[in-house]
Amino acid sequence: MEGTSGEGGAPASVPLAKWKNDFSRKFQYYLDRSTPHPVERWLGSLAVAAVYVLRVYLVQGFYIVSYGLGIYVLNLLIGFLSPMVDPELETLDGASLPTRGSDEFKPFIRRLPEFKFWYSITKAFCVAFLMTFFSIFDVPVFWPILLFYWIVLFALTMKRQILHMIKYKYIPFDFGKKKYGGKKPSAGSRRD
């Protein structure tokens, strides 16, 4: 028979599929549990990035992989700093971000949420780390030129993003913003 192992006619891929399903469930469980702990998640990602940087430093190669990783992280950063609905395109529809106190308040919603941003960066560093074990990805290149080009690209891209933020008056971060709380119980209305 095709696709069967000799035991009871069960397909040979069933144990592999079961293992993959079990692994996927456990991975998703731990991923879900990490959601309310952003500081710990980012510290773990920083550790993964440090291991990658140490690997590239010790091997003295894989600069093309690092450059590609840098471009990908820059792309993720732009998505993280951008609003879900671009105000330039929204003005064509007649709706825009509030510019006066009487305008309707619209909260800042990111195009790329923080959790997906973290997960994508961590995955990217893990993939880049794995790529450093295959010599096919170690293309000889003069790395200072790549580094200079990436810095110029970063500066120009961030300048454009910051000008966009200033033009449409939005801040993609929570610090420095007013925090509004619910009604606090007064001392006279307390029950014993």
**Low-confidence parts:** none
Q: Which structural class do the helices and strands define?
A: mainly alpha
Q: What share of residues are in beta strands?
A: under 5%
Order of helical and strand elements: HHHHHH
Radius of gyration computed on alpha carbons: 24 Å
Instruction: Summarize the biggest pleated sheet.
Output: none
Extended strand count: 0
Q: Fraction of residues in helices?
A: 55-70%
Number of domains: 1
Beginning-to-end CA distance, first to last residue:
78 Å
Net shape: extended
SS summary, helix count = 6
Compute the average pLDDT.
Answer: 83
Keywords: Membrane, Transmembrane, Transmembrane helix
Protein name: Protein RER1
Subcellular location: Membrane
Organism: Apostasia shenzhenica
Summarize the structure in words.
This protein has 192 residues and is mostly helical. The chain has one domain (15-88, 107-167). 57% of the residues lie in helices and 0% in strands. It has six helices and no strands. The protein has helices at 14-34, 38-59, 63-81, 87-90, 114-131, 143-167. Helix 2 runs parallel beside helix 5 and helix 3 (63-81) packs antiparallel against helix 5. The chain is extended. The termini are far apart. The mean pLDDT is 83. Belongs to the RER1 family. It is found in: Membrane.
